[in-house]
Write a structure and sequence with these properties.
Blueprint: H1 7-17, H2 22-29, H3 33-40, H4 48-58, H5 62-67, E1 79-84, H6 105-118, E2 128-138, H7 139-148, H8 151-163, H9 169-183, E3 186-195, H10 209-214, H11 236-240, E4 242-252, E5 264-269, E6 274-276, E7 279-290, E8 300-301, E9 303-304, H12 307-312, E10 323-331, H13 335-338, H14 360-375, E11 389-397, E12 400-407, H15 410-413, H16 415-426, E13 439-449, E14 457-469, E15 479-483, E16 489-494, E17 505-510, H17 522-531, H18 544-549, H19 555-573, H20 582-590, E18 610-618, E19 624-631, E20 641-647, E21 659-666, E22 668-671, E23 674-677, E24 683-690, E25 704-710
Parallel strand pairs: 2-11, 15-17
Antiparallel strand pairs: 1-7, 2-3, 3-10, 4-5, 4-10, 5-7, 5-9, 6-7, 7-8, 11-12, 13-14, 14-17, 15-16, 18-19, 19-24, 20-25, 21-24, 22-23
Amino acid sequence: MEAGEEFGPWLARQLRLANKTQAELAEELGLTRAAVSAWITKRSVPRPTVMGEIAKALGTDLGTVHTRTTDTQAGLPVTWYHRPGYQDGGRDGGNAAAFAFDADVQVLARETCQNSLDERLVENGRPVRVRYTIHELTGEKLGAFRAALLWDELQPHYSAVSESAADQKVGRVVDAGVRDMFEKGRLVLLRIDDYNASGLTGDDYGDGKFAAVVRRQLESLKSGRGAGGSYGLGKATLWATSALGMVLINSTLSVPHEGRTERRVIGRLELPWRSVDGIPYAGPAWLGRPDPETHNAEVVRSWWADEETVERLHLTRDNDEPGTSFLIVGAHDVASLEQGGTDSDDEEGNAGDGDGIRDIRVMHRRLVEALGRDFWAAMTGGGSRLPLLETSVRTYRNGEIVVEEETVDPTDIQPSRSRALRAFYEGTTVDRLTEAGQVALCAVPLKLPLFGGRSGTLGTHQGVLLVTDAEDKDGVPNQVHSLRGNRMTIKKSTVHGLPLGVTQFQAVLLVGHAAGESAPFAGEAEEFLRAAEPPEHDRWGQTEELTLRWSHSAHNRISRLTTEVNAAVKGLVVRPKRPGSEESAKLGKKLTVQRKAPAVKRGSGPTVPELVELDAEIGASKEWRITAEVKLPRADELPAMTPVVLLEVRSGGRPRLDWAELVAVEGCAVEGGVLHFEQGARRAVFRGATDPTSHPVRTELTRLALELRAGSGE
């Protein structure tokens, strides 16, 4: 049972909530105002016989006055506060931060799980536990929940948004969400609970985690140096996933606020500008208890709810362990439609109504897939290293189980990679792969630049590369998963240019704190790579922060790291040729190569290689992956050529893209981005991948052009 708040501060707040002065309370109690003042200033406490009179005056019971773990129900009731329209006439069509992400439960899982990892309580050494609960409400259950939400207060605001839906993207989404709830009689709730996390600590309005999440935008207050987030955008995925723009919050605090830790509740609503009964409203609204200390006592703040209230709001937590519960009201998953998600997945085989964005079974499956794909490393332990994270997903309809709770097991979803990481933790890696199931380890250097655009190197951080045989469940083979301190997969890249016959593998790159706290410059590498991540935290490359803090060319250090990693992988998986070996001798007996007299060399004029074949596709990281064939003329000498990749445009100069990777396959060599052709070869083949951060527009919307330019290609 949690300790109650001190009597003086608790009583002062109850008087404010009840809009009652110290003099009025003293008069009701038959005491002097000085006696009440002494209680509030903590100079004394009331006698036990007076406690009952205080409870009566505040309209509560004696137990509430004695324990002081909740506010009385006297005074201003819980309600919705809608931010007034701007006095200068400005209008917002919604929260711009929400447009940074798609309405995708897999993106939601990535961002929310990352936030929970960042807020893990590390002192006890235990992992943070994150559970996703999908709950579809219909009939009486839905009606009871709407009543708990004070829907009648919200209805005029939703109606105003629906009337102007044709002019606003957010309005169209909200209008569709409201119609789905009433016309189809259903509502999907998606709750994310974390345990062994810090909770939303701090004041309602001051600098703290509570205000950063509930009150502000683009503010990131993280607990650890190895935190995944840095933009303050991740929380916007919560509201982006709600078709009604609504999220309710119940937090158990690791640090007491107002003397309490349990059931700190508030709600936030994100709507576009609207006019209700001739009164303009700016957009956001909050569910809470009006704060008497604010102007007109209209602005609401969080309140300490009772158990019955959190149960009616579907916010009940398992225990008193610190952490936060976020309830997304009207959850939808638009991205599932692009991946074939439909309601036809009914276990009985019944055809659904075609609205896959709210199919709770599809949501369940996609959440499990995302958690296993992005957080397998955080859920893997070994030796003295414990997992950082435990995750599970469960699905209900009106309180009845639809899909049993499913704990995400990294050894089942990512068997090869989790085996590789566990071997690293247990110290059982080898220098070279000689048997199935082994894990090879190799160090790869990341040369860190100096701050402020200064030339030179701060130091070399040694990342850890792990390579092992691939298994069927791992997904795409021959990939490198890169991660840093919080052990969330940041970058996925395929190793190209492998010879035929190479055994399929999976590789893991550990950098920053993930490489070990004792790794040289681990903290500096963590800071550098964190700055090189976009808001989605799904790759490393050129970012504005990287340019401002280091230089415009700092991302080249990451490109060199990629080159080092690919070379190291090939060194571990490609068996070196052994001339004169027994296998070569056997093969030589079966082959006969007709010898021809060497052709007489003929002089030739200026000739250049010619690009004759080009194959391109878009990779997993939205990069262009290119394979090109070059026809080589007969000549005494062939000039070096630089492949230049450009975007086709209707007018003006064609934008040039940067290479993230350029490798020779046949008949040539690559040095510094320049092709050097082998003498006597008649064809050459090379492969390359562009740097997605150099793309001025989305890759899917572009057309590609490839040129061969003499020399350096400038």
